[in-house]
Structure formats: structure tokens, C-alpha cells
Write a structure and sequence with these properties.
Layout (H helix, E strand, L loop, with lengths): L1 E7 L4 E8 L31 E9 L2 E5 L3 E2 L3
Antiparallel strand pairs: 1-2, 1-3, 3-4, 3-5
Length: 75
């Protein structure tokens, strides 16, 4: 899957990090975990404000699915 992380700078959301997470050994129907170190939504972020959100896109072979909606990073 591909993922995007945006941070709130007090006026707008800015792309902070992007990346991929690959699990070649999983079969259909199995779950995997991508452990990335994101800012929490309520912690002070790199721009000196609060706000962190993520979204993801499932990739199967060379086929890209639709982007998910944005989710506040509260976990």
C-alpha cells in the first residue's frame, strides 16, 4: 500500500511524509501491520501546531485502488 501523512501548520494541511508498506508474504484475506512513526493529532508537530492525518491506497501488482478518506492520527 501507499500512504500519505499531512500535518496542520495553523492555516492549511501540508504533505509531511509519504511512503509505501509492502507485505509480500501475505495471502489473500490475511492482515499485515505497517508500523510508521506519525505525529499524534493532538501533539505539537514539526510545524509547531497540532494536527496529523493519514490516508492510504491499496496496490495490487501494478493496479492502484482509490485513496481512502483522510483519518486523524489519534492512535
Amino acid at each position: 500500500m501507499r500512504w500519505q501523512n499531512e500535518l496542520w501548520d495553523g492555516q492549511r494541511w501540508l504533505t509531511y511524509r509519504t511512503g509505501t508498506c509492502t507485505a509480500y508474504t501475505l495471502d489473500t484475506g490475511q492482515w499485515g501491520v505497517c508500523n510508521k512513526d506519525f505525529y499524534e493529532n493532538t501533539s505539537t508537530n514539526a510545524y509547531g501546531d497540532q494536527g496529523s492525518r493519514v490516508r492510504w491506497q491499496i496496490v495490487t501488482g501494478t493496479t492502484f485502488g482509490a485513496w481512502s478518506s483522510w483519518h486523524l492520527n489519534n492512535q
